[in-house]
Amino acid sequence: MNLIKKAVLKPIPMAAIVVLIVFFGILGLYRLPVQLTPDVELPQITVTTTWPGATPHEIERDIIEKQEDKLKDIAGLTMMESSSYNNYGEVSLTFALETDISRALLDVSNKMNEVEEYPENVEEPMIDTTGAHSDPILWLMLKKQGEASKGVRKYQTFFDNQIKSKLERVKGVSSLIIAGGTEEQLHIVLDMKKMAKHNISIADVKHKIAAANQNRSAGVLGIAQKDYRLRIISQFQTPDDPMDVVVFDDGVNRIYLRDIAHCEMGYEKEKVSVMQNSSDAIVIGVLKEHGTNVLHLLAGMRVVVDGLNNGILSQNGLYIDWGYDQSSYINRALSIVKKNFAIGSLLAIGVLLLFLRSFSTTITTAIAIPISVLGTFLALWLFNRNLNVVSLAGISFAVGMLVDNSIVVLENIDRHKKMGKTGLQASCDGAQEVLGAVVASTLTTVAVFLPIIFIKGEAGQLFRDIAIAITASILFSLFVSIWVIPRSPIICLISRQGI
Predict the structure, then answer these.
(1) What single DSSP character describes residue 269?
(2) Of the four, 48, 237, 458, 478, which is 20 to 30 A from 68 by CA?
(3) How far apart are CA 22 and CA 371, in angstroms?
(4) What radius of gyration do the chain's Cα atoms show?
């Protein structure tokens, strides 16, 4: 007994398969990340190292070259670029498409630990998987309300301590780009006349303060049968602590920092100035993780921002202004594609009704469209893709082809019915007769789009969604035409006999 006859005689298994396709297709539709376009960037890791006060030449010579020498041997690395600026430098690492980004991140971290000692005052390098050239999906502006006691730029430290972590914890956020603020600093104001009197230079003061502001390990102290690890805690905790630093000691005279200077709280020098609508602001750019549902991320971010505006920010005379985000473009683009898909489906059904001149036959043929489309959503979900204008465009392109196989099978069944055969026999013989032609026609279409799935690089990432969408929809339409259409209840109604 062939498979077509089995499907006709035992409809329950086929019905169960169709229900599963529909159910998991709907589930996949809601689980698919929604973006404007496919992710077309190769896996990228950026290492950023900050050295306050250094020139690009110094950063290149003393930091970047050392890092490049260690990072160049990482497996899967295809391109390494570096940039040096005033105060900081970046090394951007691009990996092959199939590289496991988590493994690459671990390799980069291990290689960074092998770099020789950095110059004094160099901050710990930061490793980011977002990529140096990723575009933020959302821009926020921290602004001042009338009650704020100081300019908004001086709230950088408050933002870092109280607000930043809440924004970074939103699901899907990779990191934040922050600019326009100045952090709080402890300023040590030197008295040049007193320094000259004691023959003390600025370099001497700087060295003594840096040496004193450190926690050090003092080794292990063994007492009886126990060992105690000793640690000297000497980092400054209050603004007055640096005043007790000894900056000069010749065995007779001892000069403390308080003898030649005084401390006061201040702010670092402004490097970037940001204004929006004639108002000073601290700008916050939100970068997303790879494969994140942008609409869900923006919805979660809006809830957090509203809570901050009504809570801690309002209490401090501040608020976050919602600037640019991609949601309007995504919704508009998806709406246009969905509208075109709906119009295309209706036109396809209308053409069928015009030429078949039978409402019941048209409906029987048209059931291939929703089943195939939901099956396509399932395929996109299984291939870990996302819902975007490209994947939806692929489904729209395939709408007209989804009913081709069903028309061929249904018309041949009707021809066998007119030959005097029963509904059961007509369905089995009609579908079996055109099986080879329908399969060959489907495979020729699949053969055109399937190779696109295996294209490497950014071009492959861009067109992979449309190839998967068309290939999956065509294959599901073949399934519907061969195993669902012959057992359709409407065919039973047409044949006026039990099947």
Answers:
(1) P
(2) 458
(3) 6
(4) 34
pLDDT digit string (tens) for the chain, length 499 residues = 466 777 677 777 888 888 898 899 889 888 888 887 777 767 788 888 888 878 888 888 888 888 888 888 888 888 888 888 888 889 988 887 777 777 888 888 888 888 878 887 788 888 877 654 567 888 888 888 766 567 788 888 888 888 888 888 888 888 888 888 888 888 888 888 888 888 888 888 888 888 787 777 777 777 777 877 777 777 788 888 888 888 888 777 888 888 888 888 888 877 777 777 778 888 888 888 776 788 888 888 999 988 988 888 888 888 888 888 878 877 887 787 778 778 877 887 788 778 767 777 777 777 888 888 888 889 888 888 888 888 888 888 777 777 778 888 877 887 887 787 777 777 778 888 888 888 888 888 888 888 888 877 667 777 888 888 888 888 988 888 888 877 664 454 444 444 3
Q: Compute the distance between CA of residue 320 and CA of residue 308 in angstroms, rounded to an integer.
A: 8
d(CA 453, CA 373): 19
Give the residue carrying structure tokens 């916050």: 284
End-to-end CA distance of the chain: 16
Please spell the DSSP secondary structure of 215-260, one letter per residue.
-EEEEEEEETTEEEEEEE-----STTGGGG-EEEE-SS-EEEHHHH
282 CB neighbour count, 10 Å cutoff: 25
Strand pairing partners for 127?
Answer: 47
Burial label for 211, CB within 10 Å (0-12, 13-18, 19+), is exposed
Residue from 457, 346, 436, 435 nearest 399 by CA: 346
Q: What is the phi/psi pair of residue 60, to 5°?
A: -65, -45
- What tokens were used for 117? 């000692």
The two tokens of residue 219 are: 């080794």
**Residue 206 has which token pair?**
């700087």
